[in-house]
Design a protein that fits this description.
By secondary structure, this protein is mostly helical. It has 2 domains: 82 residues, Winged helix-like DNA-binding domain superfamily/Winged helix DNA-binding domain (Arc Repressor Mutant, subunit A); 93 residues. The chain is 61% helix and 5% strand. Strands 1-3-2 form a 3-stranded antiparallel sheet. It is elongated, with a radius of gyration of 20 Å. InterPro entries: Tscrpt_reg_PadR_N, WH-like_DNA-bd_sf, WH_DNA-bd_sf. Pfam families: PadR. It comes from Microbacterium gilvum. This is Helix-turn-helix transcriptional regulator.
Length: 192
């Protein structure tokens, strides 16, 4: 899942400011991927340019909150339903972790969309291998891609089973009320 789609999915839960989005992303993906706050703001500016988000005036602390437009809400849903990039092996688990944490998201629909994409990838790779390519390197790569796609299919089945055992209201994580602070904490010797 690209950063663009992840930020839109989080913003579908309510307006956030940049550093808050960075923190929410880390919290919802188990901290496996950390975003540079500059990357977050750059992405927000592109989303604004594309008409997917609007920025509000700064609050009393200087936080600029961003909110989805109607077009952005449609893009957030489409991003969750779009198949993950098979070239990025960590994209699928990150996407499912993020989606599972979002209140009001139909996780079964997202998993089913991923299952369909993986099944199509498996069928295509099996057809490529059955064609008996003359190139051993091509056959080796196709075999490796097939093994990865089959692993994704197995992982999706296991993850759906595990997450299905947890009621949606227990796995959904609302936006945090705690506002993340910017900057480094004060040094202990400076406080004395």
């Amino acid at each position: 899942m690209r950063v663009r789609e992840a930020l839109l999915a989080i913003l579908a839960q309510g307006p956030c400011y940049g550093y808050q989005l960075r923190t929410e992303y880390a919290r919802r993906t188990g901290g496996t991927r950390l975003l540079n706050v500059g990357q977050v703001y750059h992405t927000l500016e592109r989303l604004e340019r594309d008409g997917l988000v609007d920025r509000d005036d700064p609050d009393e602390l200087g936080h600029v909150f961003w909110a989805l437009t109607d077009l952005g809400a449609d893009a957030a849903r489409a991003g969750l339903l779009a198949p993950s990039d098979p070239a990025d092996r960590s994209a699928l688990p990150v996407k499912i972790a993020l989606a599972a944490s979002l209140p009001g998201v139909d996780l079964d629909e997202i998993v089913d969309a991923e299952r369909t994409a993986v099944a199509e990838r498996i069928a295509g790779l099996r057809a490529d291998l059955a064609a008996e390519p003359a190139d051993a390197a091509l056959a080796t790569v196709a075999g490796g891609l097939l093994a990865g796609a089959e692993a994704d299919a197995h992982w999706l089945d296991e993850t759906a089973r595990l997450l299905g055992a947890v009621p949606p209201h227990l796995r959904a994580v609302p936006l945090s009320d705690e506002r993340p602070r910017r900057g480094r904490p004060p040094r202990a010797d400076a406080a004395a």
